[in-house]
Amino acid sequence: MTIRALIVDDEPLARRRIRGLLAEAGDVGVVAECANGREAIQAIDESPPDLLFLDIQMPEVDGFDVLRAIGVGQVPVVIFVTAYDQFALRAFEAHALDYLLKPFDDERFEAALQRARERIRQQQGGDLDRQLRALLQEVRGDRGYLRRLVVPTGPRNVFVRTEEIDWIEADRNYIRLHVGDRTHLLRENLSRIESALDPAAFCRIHRSTIVNVDRIQAVESLFGGEYLVLLHDGTRLTSGRSYRRNLHALMGKES
Fold first, then answer.
1. pLDDT (tens digit, 0 to 9) for every residue of the chain, 255 residues total?
2. In terms of residue numbers, what domain contains 168?
3. Taking a C-beta distance cutoff of 8 angstroms, is the pair 132, 76 a contact?
4. For position 162, which CATH number holds?
5. How many whole angstroms separate alpha carbon 128 and alpha carbon 110?
6. Residues 165 and 129 in one domain
7. Which strands sit side by side in the sheet containing 174-179, from one edge to the other?
8. CA quadruple 53, 157, 199, 135: dihedral sign
């Protein structure tokens, strides 16, 4: 039996990597590739695959949105693909759902694929439904605030605790983490990171800037409702007018 696989990832290189590894497998055929969640929903609805490689971090419609849209009962065997553990890799492990942490090697890929083969042979639909429902409930509910990020750096993954971050800035389709005298570039959306961080510990002061509250030394009023935010290491950041409410709340002022 040839396993029908669908690859969903907004990074062309990531799709090519998975496609290449599947070509070597011999028993898996790629029926379609999707660059975003909306395409994935349509592709699964039109022709459900046996196996789904699903990227978690995608703009607008992410991997979890795809699962909710098609309905857990219609989800094929899924291997999640993720660049870091915003949603806590322990969740996948706890619910016995497989994942690939980018960048992954050939051996890790083959192990995940072999487990997928076994699931498909055994047709454990009911078990998979329960596991996916439990995972989505955890994601929808109080999963706790983000405690660490995993930053891919070539063959290594660097773990960064959020409490160590001084400030975060948007950089096109990436975010730049400033940690002491080091910086780390991560492919992610600033608003999505903001929603995952503890609002008591981090404050968004600009459309492109989030600051660790504990790193703020002083806040100085500027013209037009803007503020100069001075960090303990001497970094000077300017707030945006539309985010002054956040600083007012931090300072205990009425907006």
1. 689 999 999 999 999 999 999 999 889 999 999 999 889 988 888 888 989 999 988 877 788 878 777 765 666 788 888 876 555 455 565 444 678 888 888 998 999 999 888 888 776 545 565 666 666 655 544 445 777 777 877 777 788 888 999 999 999 888 999 999 999 998 888 887 887 788 889 999 999 999 999 999 999 998 878 899 999 999 999 999 888 888 888 888 765
2. 148-251
3. no
4. 2.40.50.1020
5. 20
6. no
7. 182-186, 174-179, 167-171, 209-212, 202-206
8. positive
> What are the distances in angstroms from CA 21 to CA 18, 110, 172, 236?
5, 8, 30, 47
18 and 135 co-located in one domain: yes
Distance CA 5, CA 52 (A): 6
- Could you tell me the CATH number of the domain that includes residue 104? 3.40.50.2300
DSSP annotation string for 180-230: TTEEEEE---HHHHHHHS-TTTEEEEETTEEEEGGGEEEEEE-GGG-EEEE
Looking at the fold, whether 95 and 213 belong to one and the same domain comes out as no
Number of domains in the chain: 2
Nearest 10 degrees: Cα torsion 21, 24, 29, 32: 30
The count of residues in the chain is 255
